[in-house]
Specification:
With 87 residues, the chain is an all-alpha fold. The protein has helices at 4-12, 22-40, 44-60, 82-85. The chain has a domain at 37-63. It contains 4 helices and no strands. Keywords: Membrane, Transmembrane, Transmembrane helix.
């Protein structure tokens, strides 16, 4: 389970508030995971645990899934502030 210490923090990185940055964020996270899987070659158990956690987060649509934005989920309260989104 040593390799999970490099995978689990990826799930804790918050999605940017600005919707224009969601594509860049998802591309960065996807390339990070792909390069990690190719370079470090985590064990099967670690990979399955990480994929199960990623599936549960994305399936629940809590808003922290970096693969896509759920249509029914609401933006955080700070996203409606024009001083934050407009920058």
């Amino acid at each position: 389970m040593y390799c999970l210490q490099w995978l689990l923090p990826v799930l804790l990185i918050p999605k940017p508030l600005n919707p224009a940055l969601w594509f860049s964020h998802s591309m960065f996270m996807g390339f990070y995971l792909l390069s990690f899987l190719l370079e470090r070659k985590p064990c099967t158990i670690c990979a399955l645990v990480f994929l199960a956690a990623l599936f549960l987060i994305c399936y629940s649509c809590w808003g922290n899934c970096f693969l896509y934005h759920c249509t029914g989920s609401q933006l955080p309260e700070a996203a409606h502030d024009p001083s934050i989104v407009g920058t």
